[in-house]
Predict the structure.
Amino acid sequence: MKFDTAYSLSLDDKLSIYDVRDLNFDETADFDSDKDSFLCPNDACRAVFDADNVLSTFNAKNVNYLRTPHFKNKPGTRHIDGCRYASSQKTATGENDDEREDNFPSEFVLTRRQYERKTPVVGIDESVPQEPTKAPSNRFTTSHNDGDTTPDKTSVFAHPVECYVSNIDDKDKLKAMPLKIGEHTATYWAFFKKIEYLQDNKGLIYWGKIKEIKDYTSSFRIDFEKKVWLDKKPYSVNVYLSKKLIENYRKRSAFLEQIKAAASSERPLYCFFYGVTPQLKQVPSKKNPEQTFGVFSANIENLDHLIIREAPGME
Ligand SMILES: [Zn+2]
């Protein structure tokens, strides 16, 4: 039994496992899932048991993962009768449901979810004068509207990507599940576009197998294996990750660990990104700087909307 969300005791809120991963890697967030307790998201069920009736996490902290991250029952986790999260409710097919993501968010929200700690931070000296107009400098500050906290929406890019990758063998499902991003609504199938077809439509989630990652130490370029054809000519495709973008990223350490490992990896890796569409550009040739050649390229603008991962079964 996988849980779409779990109740976090420290945040007093329901989180998806992708929210938990996002917080674990966020260097600006005072959060560690190993020090938190995750409880049944069913309010009626949770109210009956003590706070030690916890769930466990799977792949909450692995930078790289193959199997779908999730919350699950521990052997001793109890639920009330009728709680839909009780382990005894097997899937109809008897299939091991740990192997795919079946909670498809219907919207990928482009602004990041803010997690508000509802319990006061211990140790604030009340005698310290505070500017009245300034919110307390709690790291989990302002929460935007509550609608975004429903499990039906996510602001963590890894979540829709995991839905797509882990269900790639079930095209009917991907063609049936709706996904909204910004003003655009389509199906999961239509929103994910192979990189070689990027000219078909703008504003999609583009993905492709990585040919090479150029490591310039503080910046990177990801080259895709497939080429884009324009006027019967093939053009290489790449995305560029600037030094400034990486240095200012709140999940910088985890990101660098991942991309450096990927750059030297022998395993087939894929890159997914949203928010930019590579355009044809003329760049100077290395061998002969007077000459230029065409390449489809884009500068990534938001690292939250880029993923490098293994994705078996995608070819
Ligand atoms: Zn329960």
The radius of gyration is 22 Å. Confidence is low (pLDDT under 50) at residues 89-95, 124-150. Residues 40, 42, 45, 79, 83, 85 surround zinc ion (CB under 6 Å).
